[in-house]
Amino acid sequence: VRILGDILLRNANYAEAIRAYAVVLAKEPRNHLAMLGTAVAKAQTGKVAEALQLYERVLTLDKRLAEVILDDCLYFVAQGKLWTAKQIFALLNQKVAPSASFYRQYADRLSLSGLPREAYANYQILRGLPDGMTTGTAGMASAATAVGDYGRAQALLTALDRQQLRSPMAAQALREYEEREKGAVEISFSYYRDYKAKENTVAASSFWQQLGGSLRLLGQTRRMYLKNTDNGDTADYTSFSPGLWLRGMNYDFKAWWDFNNVNGLEGHRLEYSFFPNDNSSLTIYTNLRPVDEADAIRQKIMARNVGAYYSWRTLTASKNGNRPQERDSFTVG
Predict the structure, then answer these.
(1) Do residues 192 and 176 lie in contact, with contact meaning Cβ atoms separated by under 8 Å?
(2) ∠ at Cα 229 (224, 232), nearest 5°?
(3) Rounded to whole angstroms, how far apart are CA atoms 138 and 150?
(4) In this structure, are residues 145 and 119 in contact, taking their beta carbons and an 8 Å threshold?
(5) Which DSSP category does 262 fall into?
């Protein structure tokens, strides 16, 4: 019957799997394989508290099964069920002594799953555990590079000596840092017409270039052509916008200064984003820019905008099951 439960579990028939395992546990209350299978099925159906009780019971019977529970934890990370994985990992750390090996595996899985901020926090704990200093520091550097906080990554790698940099993890982190993206160029063209028969045509090019540490130089040029087809009014202007971009582990700040070939249309754009985790962000912005209508350009009318928005995403398992993918994204603001 337990094997039947395992088959049902693999086929995502969780309710039937739970029933099959219940038959086994009724006869063998200490059957840890049935308890572990039930725990996974319960977690998959949202009954995380019940799953945690079963995992705790398994650890009470035999703490050597912590490795098996860790495997379940890593599986849930790969499935995009990060909250569930965090609860299981927290339970492991309550019931068994914190292990450098466990933190290494957990943080590595978070990193491979595209969750560098979560990985960074766990590599930081790993860094303070026995035998975890080199691996933890290298993992923090790798996560910082993935986020774009190059200054932090550089400082962490500098803290490692030559012997430590020969370790596989540190060598990989150093290679990732040296191969980091140092700049980019983007060219775009857009045209749109609104319900008032007003047409906007925009050609733009922009770039960013790393200056040093986590600071980047920004640049943008825009050619704007405006037309009101109702009365034939037209206007056009060209803007050049230098700026600065500062990126940290949990924040992103951009500042642009907009200069135009038409006097009186100078403006600016400021944007600050805070990332409490890898799946959400809060952005606050303000800008002063021309009103993009032909008659407004002639009158040199400027508009100031201030606002904020909160964005988040949910994850789900990918087809290969090794890395979660975005399922839904939302923005409110």
Answers:
(1) no
(2) 85
(3) 13
(4) no
(5) S
Q: How many Cα atoms within 13 Å fall on the side-chain side of residue 215?
A: 5
Look up residue 259 and give its two tokens.
Answer: 């200069």
Residues 6+ positions from 187 with CB-CB distance below 8 Å: 204, 205
pTM here?
A: 0.90
Three-class SS state of 186: strand
DSSP 63: G
- The amino acid occupying position 182 is K
Among 183, 103, 108, which residue's Cα sits nearest to residue 148? 183
- DSSP-derived secondary structure for 160-221: S-HHHHTSHHHHHHHHHHHTS--EEEEEEEEEEE-TTSEEEEEEEEEEEEEEETTEEEEEEE
Amino acid at residue number 15: A
Helix, coil or strand: residue 117: helix
Q: What is the C-alpha separation between 277 and 285, in angstroms, rounded?
A: 20
Strand partners, 208: 184, 218
- Quickly count: other Cβ atoms within 10 Å of residue 95's Cβ: 15
Cβ(98)–Cβ(120) under 8 Å?
no
Torsion region of 316: left, alpha or beta (phi above 0 gives left; psi -120 to 50 gives alpha): beta
- Taking the chain (333 residues) in runs of 10, the rounded mean pLDDT of each run is 90 94 94 95 95 96 95 95 96 93 97 97 96 96 97 96 94 97 96 84 96 96 90 89 97 97 93 97 97 88 97 89 89 95
Distance in angstroms (rounded) separating the CA atoms of residues 267 and 258: 5
Pairing of strands 267-277, 280-290: antiparallel
**Which pair of structure tokens corresponds to residue 287?**
């800008």
- H or E segment to which residue 40 belongs: helix 32-44
